[in-house]
Amino acid sequence: MVISKISFKQPIKLIVALITALLGGYLFQLLHIPIPWLLGPMISVLLGSNVFKDRFAWPTPIRNAGLIIVGYTIGLSMTATALHEMAIQLPSMLLMTLLLMLLCVWLAYMISKLSPINFKTALLGSIPGGLTQMVILAEETKGINLTIVTVLQVIRLMMIVICVPLLVFSPIMGNQHATQTLIQSVTASTASWGELTPNIFIFAIISISCALLGHNVKFPTAFLLGPAFSTAIIQLFGLHGPALPNSIINAAQIMIGIQVGLMLKPAQLNHKFQILSLSIGSSLVLLLGSFGLSFIFMHLHAISKSTALLSLAPGGMDQMGIIAHEINANLSVVVGYQLFRTFFIFFAVPPLLRLLFTYSANKKMNRKSPS
């Protein structure tokens, strides 16, 4: 009797979560809020699940399916042109990325000193590796406050997505394009359903297989990185990966956003005003740091101010690429730098963080143990 009751209630909770997410995404889209189909479902499900207790459910496999889709789209960006640009400017890319990472470490250290947030949580909240990636990494790491990481990442993303276009289209950069053109480009469809077949079946089978294999061998964020890495390799061998229609990408963001919204626990977030203030302040410092690094970048290579800033801005590669296209910046440089930082954070940061956290934990244990 209990089993049938649970099996009946579970689909109802799933449907409630999905309807709530769709309403939130639609509202965020009407308000022109960045990445509405990720943030909208996340916020609406967060509010709904905290007001109506035990009314929402979302299976992890559905979230993982969304991650596979996002990973595939990331892998599509690893084109031969982007790889060529990365190879030419590899030393500069590594230098700029390391300087930006050092700034993030310093910001995390300051946040941990000025607030009750521990350094591990502050660090994962400060690294500009993308909201989805950092939240998933935080979920897999012990001793991390997932709610704080998400708050720090969401505020950083909002600040970057709003401030960078305003800065790039300002007289400081010398770009006079109307922002309406940018909005139209963001909302324009990138692909059609008819272009998916037949190659999408090959990429789907390989992406899912690599995601499951990576998960079994404990690869970090396997459902995201497995498809990204496999897609990039297949494309380098000459097989074209079709771009996904916006509806599929939006669906993937909904799958992820619902799960993140259910994982957030606002009741566990103490010192809310302090954390909010530090989040906004650290995001501004990160943006100013990127702006400063762009001047160093300009002296290393003969590029425009806008190209330098968009290459180093700690925002999403897709948003920065769209802006670069609108102002006729060097798109291959922008995508190359953003892609290099993305993959550096994907592949280098997780093992480095695990080594750092393990070393820190062992050091604490040695201090506590009797001499």
Automatic annotation (TrEMBL):
Taxonomic placement: Bacteria, Bacillati, Bacillota, Bacilli, Bacillales
Highest taxon in the source lineage: Bacteria
Keyword annotations of the record: Membrane, Transmembrane, Transmembrane helix
Coiled coil: none
Cellular component terms (Gene Ontology): membrane
Any one GO BP annotation for this protein: regulation of gene expression
Keyword Aminoacyl-tRNA synthetase: no
Regions that span the bilayer: 12-29, 35-52, 64-84, 90-111, 144-168, 196-214, 221-241, 276-300, 339-357
Protein name: AbrB family transcriptional regulator
Protein's organism: Paenibacillus oryzisoli
Pfam families registered for this protein in UniProt: AbrB (PF05145)
